[in-house]
Specification:
4 strands, about 110 residues, alpha+beta, 5 helices, 4-stranded mixed beta sheet
């Protein structure tokens, strides 16, 4: 993972706020990884913040889990685009998004 790269202060603050919302919602998080244009360093002013949320509680209904995560955003974290993963699914070597996250992601937790 691209943990040597850094996020801008503004992006890091939004990610931190979202992580706090996850904690308050009692969703156990194994890992939190920023990926996409923010992690690669080629984000535009209108780019969202892709965040992979890995939790043992996920893996049953990814759509519903994503909606649950999106409801945790507010006006200060509106750019967050959460992507839920169960550790088993994240480990799937045939999942192209998981591969992208592993290759370019910035591990937050």
């Amino acid at each position: 993972m691209a943990s040597q790269k850094k996020l801008t202060k503004e992006i890091a603050l939004q990610v931190s706020r979202f992580a706090k919302q996850l904690q308050l919602s009692k969703i156990p998080v194994n890992h939190l990884i920023v990926f996409g244009s923010q992690a690669k360093g080629d984000a535009k002013p209108w780019s969202d913040i892709d965040i992979c949320v890995i939790s043992d509680t996920f893996g049953k209904d990814r759509h519903r889990e994503r909606v649950t995560l999106m409801k945790l955003t507010d006006e200060k974290t509106i750019d967050i685009e959460p992507h839920p993963y169960h550790p088993r699914d994240f480990a799937d070597k045939w999942d192209p998004l998981a591969h992208e996250i592993k290759k370019y992601g910035i591990v937050i937790k």
